Amino acid sequence: VQLQASGGGVVQAGGSLRLSCVAERRALVSYTLGWFRQAPGKEREFVAGIGWSHEDTYYADVVKGRFTISRDNDKNTLYLDMKSLQPDDTAVYLCAATPVFSGGYDYYSVPASYEYWGKGTLVTVSS
Description:
This protein is 3% helix and 50% strand.
């Protein structure tokens, strides 16, 4: 699976952005998907994850209520809608995929659970 994230940019604090992640060469319907982010000098951090059925969604506490993860299997695309952005949200956002697995937050939130990674898109939030 090749993943390509897009939609990043520069936004003022309080603003919104929508990130997209398109999969090539494989249908995403049978994959668990996730968004992570990595700020300079920091470890990769879980943002949100979604199961194949759309019903299973998980969020990091720091984004809960502000970010929404969704997927369109017909378009082979994963989305992350971000609102009320803050400077601490500044990071490279990466999408990830792995064959569907059973598990809760502890599985979705761990980078090692994901087999495929995109190159990421930079989000910069100015104060």
